[in-house]
């Protein structure tokens, strides 16, 4: 069953008419609003912070920071001064110069944001690492990137084996009573003494900005390098897709350790001069709703795994809070199941707008817009200025409704610049016809909407039929007992592969043979006989990345007794 399309939202949107804009837009238009368009002087941090600090937005709140212990806010003017100070600390203590890698390994805090911006002002390349990484994962990334300076906290310092990292010259520790020595400096103390004036390093559009190691859902993390030119698309999508208005209070729930937490947790909102709420600490349904109410959040960007957890917490919790400030809700990172969209309409009276993109693409590419009808389960349509298609393995475009490789025509502004130390890997992303091949499998319908089917490697061939795991998982989620589902293909001598589902049950449901049969029948009747899982296994939890994505390769490895590969990004 496909859900009814959800109607466009009436009102003033930055993207007024998708089809018209798609026909007429080209990227040279988008450059004109940047200060470097006339001055020729480019730097992401200048554009995101200083430009506003020197305008009538100077006293507008740029950053609201909130966790269990801290409740702070900083204006654009203050952000300029504090990031200048951080830049000066990095320059004087860390000897940081243009092109050096500065890594940041700590939980969200205002200091994290001052540091990222300060490093960028020096023309350094920032490498954000998620706080939960253990020693092996930290070492791999610092060694691969040859990081020169690391900013971390006392709690995480034990996971940094400085003696094994010959390129690491300086560690700045953010905490209290830090004992300084040749290697270690006290960040806060140095900040106090640092000047709030800094000469920003002007860069070329293709100079390095940020180095993101990908989530690791499929294999060993790779260092994806992005450059300053990406700001063009960060800005433009923040306008069209996040639909920012002057008075918005925006909350992106992603950690800067993942690309969403930088492209849309730092760059998108601040390039557009938007007030940005950052919430530290762990996920908890009540406190999340509390944040929306307290800050009057208007635009909210999160992920399917979070929405599924909120859904699992029940609708009663939602009713305790006033969420009427919410205007626009978006999702990224994993397929957004129609069931979740339906729930969003029920409890928030809001359509959740799915957006598709990858670490490698740097910014959103296929999205749902307020001015466009949403088909629940579809990722939407390519942003103006971007050509997307479904191609076969030779790069030939396939007609509508045929499953194939989701590919993007080369040439969008936020495209990765390289894979660090791995040119070969970089080249492997491309196919004849100038196609960037995503590794995702999808189809496009007659109206140009794209439908995610699964990772190419996860698509299941059963009795001659190609089945995308996403469709099966979404159907499973509609069953009232199912909280989460991960579906894989398991080799079978007769059918090629059979479908096996791993399921975590909702509270109050117990595994049983009857339930297995009931769920099988549910998929058979609701989707197709050949799509019904032949095997179902219940698990307490499914293996996930720390960004919340189900790791199907781990399910498969467990099932087939294969090596699980790199697990550095897996949740405990
Ligand atoms: P790795 O590349 O290291 O295996 P990863 O692919 O999970 O990890 P990311 O770059 O964070 O790393 O995620 C991009 C992938 O996430 C996409 O290729 C796609 O499979 C999935 N994804 C992102 N957004 C969506 C979406 N809206 N719908 C479906 N899938 C999505
Ligand atoms: Mg990937």
Explain what you see:
30% of the residues lie in helices and 23% in strands. The protein is an alpha/beta fold. Helix 4 packs across helix 5, helix 5 crosses helix 6 (110-121) and helix 9 crosses helix 10 (260-271). The protein is globular. The two termini are 36 Å apart. Residues 214-219, 221, 259, 332-336, 354-356, 358-359, 379, 438-440, 452, 455, 549 line the site of adenosine-5'-triphosphate (ATP).
pLDDT averaged over residues:
95
Instruction: Indicate the CATH topology of the largest domain.
Output: Rossmann fold
Residue share in β-strands: 15-25%
Low-confidence stretches: none
Looking at CATH, the homologous superfamily of the largest domain is ANL, N-terminal domain
Major sheet details: 9 strands, mixed
GO biological process, one term: acetyl-CoA biosynthetic process
GO cellular component, one term: cytosol
Domain AMP-dependent synthetase/ligase: 51-416
Organism: Cytobacillus horneckiae
Overview features:
single chain, binds magnesium ion, globular, Rossmann fold, 5-stranded parallel β-sheet, 9-stranded mixed β-sheet, alpha/beta, 2 domains, GMP Synthetase, Chain A, domain 3, 18 helices, binds adenosine-5'-triphosphate, 572 residues
